[in-house]
Amino acid sequence: MQMNNIKKIILFVVFITVTQASYAKFYRWVDENGKVHYSDKLPAERARGAHEQLNETGVPTKAIDRDKTDAERAAEKIESEKLANERREKAAIEARQRAKDKILLDIFTSERDLIYTRDDRLTSIESLINLTELNNKRLEERLKVSTDTQARLLKDNKKVPETIIEKINSIQGQIDKNNNYIASQNENYEKTKKDFEADLLRYRELKSETP
Q1: Which of 10-14, 18-22, 65-69, 83-87 has the least mean pLDDT?
Q2: What is the pTM (predicted TM-score) of this model?
Q3: I need a labelling partner for 96 at 20 to 30 A (CA). Which of 31, 51, 103, 118 fits?
Q4: Rounded to a whole number, what is the distance in angstroms from the first to the last CA of the chain?
């Protein structure tokens, strides 16, 4: 009877030992000087640093990275927000393109329609430019008459009436305004031409993709 109790005690001790060994944790870490450390207890100052958990045979079972610094977390947040903004911008660009594609396909039934619309738009802009240039020629003729009168009076040492000076300034101001308008319409012409070229290429792509 006593021998049986001894056997039970021995078996119990072996069981506890094996059980504890199976749950034992060992740690491995490298300090700031590059020295490798092993221990069954992880120092408190290393808890937030990079380290590995090992089993009883020394095989790594888990790797824990060091806690990030505030600067690193802030940099990650900035990068994350940047990527999110880029994704939103990309989605917005794609949405605008889809909407533009739909308009192209809804408005123009053929490539010829798009070309006719382009030519009409460009012709309209050209007409505005030509009319403004013609108006400027007339203004320049009137300006020449007034400036010649002013020059003749000055040559004769006579006072130039205020009305003539105001007329010269007014005509010159209108000419300058028209020149600015012509320049803006020339830019509009080139932009319209470029936009329609892009639309025409895109229209061809969409039509080739349409079953």
Answers
A1: 18-22
A2: 0.58
A3: 118
A4: 93
Gyration radius of the chain over CA positions: 43
- CB neighbour class for 150 (10 Å; exposed up to 12, middle 13-18, buried from 19): middle
CA dist 138 and 132 (Å) reads 10
Q: Which residue has tokens 């700031």?
A: 32
DSSP 46: G
Residue 171 burial (10 A CB sphere; 0-12, 13-18, 19+) = buried
**63 pairs with which residues across the strands?**
52
Number of other residues whose CB lies within 10 A of the CB of residue 101: 16
In one-letter notation, the amino acid at residue 36 is: V
Which H helix or E strand runs over 174? helix 162-209
Q: Measured between alpha carbons, how far is 114 from 107 in angstroms, rounded to an integer?
A: 9
CA atoms within 13 A on the CB side of 85: 6
Give all strands of the β-sheet with 36-39 in edge-to-edge order: 36-39, 26-30, 51-54, 60-64
- The candidate with the shortest Cα–Cα distance to 98, out of 202, 204, 208, is 202
Quote the strand ranges of 1-50, DSSP E.
26-30, 36-39
pLDDT, tens digit, 9 for 90 and up, residues 28-80: 777 777 788 777 777 766 667 777 777 766 677 777 776 667 787 788 888 88
Does residue 30 sit in helix, strand or coil?
A: strand
Q: Which of 20-29, 75-84, 92-101, 127-136 has the lowest mean pLDDT?
A: 20-29
